[in-house]
Design a protein that fits this description.
The complex is a heterodimer of chains A (273) and B (157).
Chain A lengths: L2 H17 L12 E4 L5 E3 H14 L7 E2 L6 E2 L1 E4 L7 E4 L2 H4 L6 H9 L13 H6 L10 H13 L5 H20 L6 H20 L3 H14 L3 H12 L23 H9 L5
Antiparallel strand pairs in A: 1-2, 1-5, 3-4, 5-6
Helix pairs in contact in A: 4-6, 6-7, 6-9, 7-8, 8-9
Chain B lengths: L1 H16 L7 E5 L6 E7 L10 E7 L10 E4 L30 H13 L9 H8 L3 H16 L5
Antiparallel strand pairs in B: 1-2, 2-3, 3-4
The chains are: A alpha+beta (273), B alpha+beta (157).
Chain lengths: 273, 157
């Protein structure tokens, strides 16, 4: 939106906003959010607070919330829509997310909000394809995939998706081993990315492309998960927290300061408590 | 706390602006306390409450609108779902079925609807409930009408 348009919105705000305010605070929408079945719109914090109140009255915590407007049962809140992707907060997860959603998951999810290509000067992807390093199986791949998909979907049980994608990756690499010797590394790379994209898209939707790039990056790095995380966060200039828990204070970030919008993002989503 | 104030202020402005929209309801905020409101509602037509004006007292909690307001009749009323002495109202949306999308204005409308459609199976006023449940519509209506005349009618002269 350009500035003029923003200004004219400002001028008309009192009439246009008031005619369609958030049903809970009656004010203008802050962080538009939608319930997943009826698509009624609320401020993110308004509807989240309401689901907490509802959950507080029931034990065990319910997995759905009735829409304050139409009483439809909804399983999740959709928010942070930026034109291509969105965040989803499951009603139940807001209370039990922490059980599986670790700091490591949080960090991985945050990575998807950074500019891609962060490791481009550390990992040489093309060399991975040229030197046919992909012929060596990567034994960390399954764990990496599980964490990555858990982080993206904010769901604990992703085994089926993990196996599906793992199967596609494996069969591609094995197939390439025997018959398609003649192809260039570049076609090989494109073919690989297309296959994995097709496999992942039904589950990851708008995040598929980035996911495939991250997957390729992880494979090309040849690192185990711990080392990979360390390099990744170092490149981002994030404080490398020991993902296991302790020792986070020891090492202070001497790199670039954390990009502010990551904090905003941190504030309103993927909370572990 | 801040959220409830902001929201009540929005409702206050809305009430000021749309005073004429619903002539059966007159909502007034306490001069010094935005958490205290009173409402005057007209008894619905074709009910024993017709012609009466009933006063309601609202006490709004700090968690509003996540918690419902407390409402009671200040005017005496003979109705199965209103406590005869305290004016307490038995209405699902003021308890379990509360939704933050309700406003003080819409709560008033719900109470007017309750006056027109009593629920004798969850009575706070047993005498009134028993009359209706035993099918003595005429008995219930004449009692309700009498109290409307006695307590809720504008004084003449």
């Amino acid at each position: 939106m350009d500035q003029d348009e923003a200004k004219s919105n400002e001028n008309h705000s009192s009439s246009s906003r008031d005619s369609n305010p958030c049903p809970i605070c009656l004010g203008p929408f802050l962080q538009e959010s939608y319930l997943d079945s009826c698509f009624h719109k609320f401020c993110y914090s308004c509807i989240l607070n309401w689901t907490k109140v509802v959950a507080g009255k029931h034990s065990p915590a319910p997995s759905s919330v009735k829409c304050p407007l139409c009483k439809t049962e909804n399983l999740s809140i959709i928010y942070g829509y930026d034109g291509s992707s969105f965040q989803r907060q499951y009603i139940n997860d807001s209370f039990e997310l922490s059980s599986f959603f670790s700091k490591a998951h949080k960090y991985r999810l945050k990575c998807y909000y950074t500019e891609p290509g962060i490791l481009s000067n550390v990992v040489n992807i093309l060399r991975y394809w040229k030197s046919r390093k992909y012929l060596q199986p990567n034994r960390w791949l399954q764990s990496w995939l599980r964490r990555e998909i858990q982080a993206l979907l904010q769901e604990e049980d992703v085994e089926i998706i993990v196996h599906h994608i793992l199967g596609v990756v494996d069969s591609f690499l094995r197939r390439g081993d025997q018959s398609h010797q003649m192809r260039t590394p570049e076609t090989k790379q494109v073919e690989f990315k297309n296959l994995v994209s097709d496999a992942a898209r039904p589950f990851l939707a708008a995040r598929t492309e980035r996911f495939v790039n991250e997957l390729e990056l992880f494979l090309a790095s040849g690192l185990n998960i711990e080392a990979y995380d360390e390099v990744y966060m170092q490149q981002l200039g994030w404080n490398t927290p020991r993902l296991t828990g302790e020792g986070a204070d020891v090492e202070h970030s001497e790199h670039t300061p954390i990009v502010p919008y990551l904090y905003i993002f941190d504030d309103d989503s993927d909370e572990t408590d | 706390m801040q959220a409830s104030r902001a929201r009540l202020f929005k409702e206050y402005k809305e009430v000021q602006r749309e005073k004429a929209v619903d002539p059966d309801i007159q909502l007034v905020c306490d001069d010094s306390n935005i958490f205290k409101w009173t409402a005057l509602i007209k008894g619905p037509t074709e009910t024993p409450y017709e012609g009466g004006v009933f006063q309601l007292a609202f006490s709004v909690p700090e968690q509003y609108p996540l918690q419902p307001p407390q409402v009671r009749f200040l005017t005496k009323i003979f109705h199965p779902n209103v406590h005869f002495k305290t004016g307490e109202i038995c209405l699902d949306i003021l308890k379990n079925a509360w939704s933050p999308a309700w406003t003080l204005q819409s709560v008033c409308r719900a109470i007017i609807a309750l006056m027109a459609h009593p629920e004798p199976d969850s009575p706070l006023n047993c005498d009134s409930g028993n009359l209706l449940r035993s099918g003595d519509i005429r008995g219930y209506q004449s009692m309700a009408r009498m109290y409307t005349r006695l307590a809720a009618s504008p004084k003449k002269g």
